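Key result, reporting period 2: structure in, sequence out.
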């Protein structure tokens, strides 16, 4: 049986191949975007886990939009106006898929930053969208390019990760956030704000979300994978009710609803009196690991390599002199360290600037030091 034309256009994920190679116990992986298992708040979830046996109602079919107590809690947490609502999805990745299937027709234009999140490129590729890109600065998207793109391409939506961008770690400035919202309103472009790393800030003060400045022209994707556990597979989408109702229709056809026991478990976790302390511990741990990785990279790498500091998230973007980053990544695997090369983050990888994405959340300090030592050895041999 022939697979669908849309799927034929999707290339095998290089990250999947890298992660498979990185399972070798002799390889230190800086490749995945994995939270550390030690941060999973299992102790905080135990009381709710033990009480689930007394909640038979959560093992029945549930509402497609989500478990009532969780929807109420998120409405309060996110201070949603009466015209807005949350919807629970099986990870925020499903939320993105629902948005694409509900709103994007073949050849509709979707704007993304370049580089951008690989999973989003795959989702929009599957619905056969035309992906237009704008370059990224240290403060967010190039605003002149973005406005020209809005004028020339009349896109349906602009997808972005403003807080600790995947893969570059860039956090948009306040001025950029306001300007992007202004442009989306002016040119009637829906802003899709993906915020999986927002709570992982470990330096500085949080900035308002972009959607704060264009609440009726945006949909927000939120994830609990990084602050609770990826295995829960719980995410949330928020926005105007009129924006979310089509998503609920698509989700009903996709999986009826996300796991109700897991939603009930998340309610117990979010309401736990020590949840705030749990978040502080995650932020502190990741800051320590980031500091180690950044300092070692500065100390050991050739001067031709460029890296910018980040204030949170999970990634450092290491810019390199022009080279074959796929070949470099394979050489690094052979030398015991896994990374992700830059071309996989571009819809059109040909000519992508040479860079590597490095993750610092899932290796301890000793492993990070050793990983940089292996990385520096290869780069000094390859780039000189």
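The corresponding designed sequence is given below.
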């Amino acid at each position: 049986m022939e697979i669908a034309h849309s799927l034929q256009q999707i290339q095998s994920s290089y990250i999947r191949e890298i992660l498979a190679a990185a399972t070798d116990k002799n390889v230190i992986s800086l490749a995945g975007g994995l939270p550390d298992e030690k941060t999973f708040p299992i102790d905080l979830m135990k009381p709710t886990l033990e009480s689930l046996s007394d909640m038979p109602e959560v093992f029945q079919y549930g509402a497609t939009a989500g478990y009532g107590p969780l929807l109420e809690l998120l409405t309060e947490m996110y201070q949603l106006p009466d015209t807005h609502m949350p919807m629970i999805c099986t990870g925020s990745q499903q939320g993105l898929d629902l948005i694409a299937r509900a709103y994007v027709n073949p050849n509709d234009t979707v704007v993304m930053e370049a580089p951008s999140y690989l999973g989003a490129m795959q989702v929009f590729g599957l619905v056969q969208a035309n992906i237009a890109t704008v370059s990224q600065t240290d403060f967010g998207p190039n605003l002149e390019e973005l406005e020209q793109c809005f004028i020339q391409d009349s896109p349906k939506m602009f997808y972005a990760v403003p807080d600790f961008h995947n893969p570059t770690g860039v956090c948009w400035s306040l001025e950029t956030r306001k300007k992007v919202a202004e442009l989306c309103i002016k040119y009637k472009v829906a802003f899709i704000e993906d915020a999986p790393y927002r709570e992982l800030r470990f330096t500085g003060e949080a900035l308002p979300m972009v959607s704060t400045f264009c609440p009726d022209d945006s949909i927000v994707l939120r994830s609990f994978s990084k602050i609770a556990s990826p295995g829960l597979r719980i995410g949330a989408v928020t926005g105007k009710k009129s924006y979310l109702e089509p998503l609920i229709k698509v989700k009903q056809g996709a999986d009826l609803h996300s796991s109700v026991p897991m939603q009930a478990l998340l309610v117990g976790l979010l309401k736990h009196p020590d949840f705030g302390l749990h978040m502080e511990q995650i932020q502190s741990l990741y800051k320590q690991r980031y500091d180690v990785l950044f300092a070692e990279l500065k100390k050991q790498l050739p001067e031709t390599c460029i890296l910018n500091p980040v204030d949170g998230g999970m990634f450092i973007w290491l810019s390199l002199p022009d080279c074959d980053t796929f070949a470099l990544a394979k050489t690094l695997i052979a030398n015991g360290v896994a990374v992700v090369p830059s071309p996989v983050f571009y819809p059109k990888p040909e000519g992508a600037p040479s860079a590597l994405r490095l993750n610092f959340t899932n290796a301890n300090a000793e492993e990070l030091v050793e990983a940089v030592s292996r990385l520096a050895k290869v780069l000094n041999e390859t780039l000189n």
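The chain has 13 helices and 14 strands. Residues 53 and 59 are 9 Å apart (CA to CA). This case is discussed further under Risks and Mitigation.
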